[in-house]
Amino acid sequence: MYSVKTIEGQLNAQGLKIAIVASRFNDFIVQHLVEGAIDYLTRHGASQEDITVVRVPGAYELPIVCKKLAAFSQYNGIIALGAVIRGSTPHFDYVCAEASKGIAQVSLQSGLPVGFGLLTCDTLEQAIERAGAHVGNKGAETAAAVVETIRVMEQI
pTM for the full model? Predict the structure, then answer.
């Protein structure tokens, strides 16, 4: 049996300052993601005073606002939330690709955990399922990933 050091994050949000950047486009879906993230954070020890929600027009604007927030250095992590539902034009592909790349760049360049909670769904039904109907709430899952990543990074 090997004896190796293992670093794992705890799901404890106590004392963390978290920004949630949420798109207004498809707000009837995104609001459920925001509520799921806030619920998760507060159930795991975060105070509501340490959570800031920033609204942006759409998914395409998520990266630039995440970048600005990351530059402030007052947050331990950022949760990016949005919903893009495929239509009949290639617009979906461009928005999803650029938002995804941009959010990843912010995290890597800033060294700050930025959670990817952008739903990219083919149908409205898929979005509803992922916003809390049958397959959980991706906002809450993204919050969990950010908290765990923060706690892992604290140990490295």
Answer: 0.95
Compute the distance between CA of residue 136 and CA of residue 129 in angstroms, rounded to an integer. Answer: 7
Q: Nearest to residue 29, comparing CAs of 61, 69, 59?
A: 59
CA distance 82 to 102: 14
The answer, yes or no, to whether residue 135 has pLDDT greater than 80, is no
Q: Indicate which residues carry an active-site annotation.
A: 91
Query: Considering only CA atoms, which of 22, 18, 140, 145 is closest in space to residue 81?
Result: 22
Q: What is the largest CA-CA distance in the chain?
A: 56
Decide: 120 and 60 in contact? Cβ < 8 Å: no
Q: Give the torsion sign (CA, 27, 28, 31, 33).
A: negative
What is the DSSP-derived secondary structure letter of residue 61?
A: G
